[in-house]
Amino acid sequence: MKKHEDISNIFNIKIKDIMAKDVIYTHPDTGVVKAFETLLKYKISCLPVVDKDKKVIGIITTTDIGYNLILDEYTLDTKVSDVMTKDVITITSNKSIIEAIRRMDEYGHKGEIINQLPVVDENNKLIGVVSDGDIIRALSKFLKK
């Protein structure tokens, strides 16, 4: 078989093989300024929001918070629960990379793509995050084979 001949093998790349497992997350009662500091400190662009059982209940992004901080939309009392996106698009670890790409494209707001998907188990508990960068790296490695 020649290089790139069987592109269908791309469906065999699973989320569990490319996701980040050491996920930084936040809770709904965290202050939005503290959450923004966390995003900047760890150089990440999203924080999944979880409840006490580590179930995903929301997500916040650097772009959303930063933009609204600049506009002075928040006070020091503003909590993550006040501003988080509640309709979170997630994925399970056994899904294929193609499914992640489809979700990132299909569920993006106003023609944008979603850059990160929280990875959850069958009980909606957070177990990882897969980003567009993770997908690009995996595809690049696959295409070098």
Automatic annotation (TrEMBL):
Could you tell me which Pfam families the record lists for this protein? CBS
Q: What is this protein called?
A: Signal transduction protein with CBS domains
| Source organism superkingdom | Archaea
Q: Which Gene3D superfamilies would you find in this protein's record?
A: CBS-domain (3.10.580.10)
Write down the PANTHER family for this protein, in alphabetical order: CBS DOMAIN-CONTAINING PROTEIN, CBS DOMAIN-CONTAINING PROTEIN CBSX3, MITOCHONDRIAL
The keyword Plastid is assigned to this record:
no
- Record domain CBS: where: 19-78, 84-145
Q: Which UniProt keywords apply?
A: CBS domain, Repeat
Q: Does the keyword Repeat apply?
A: yes
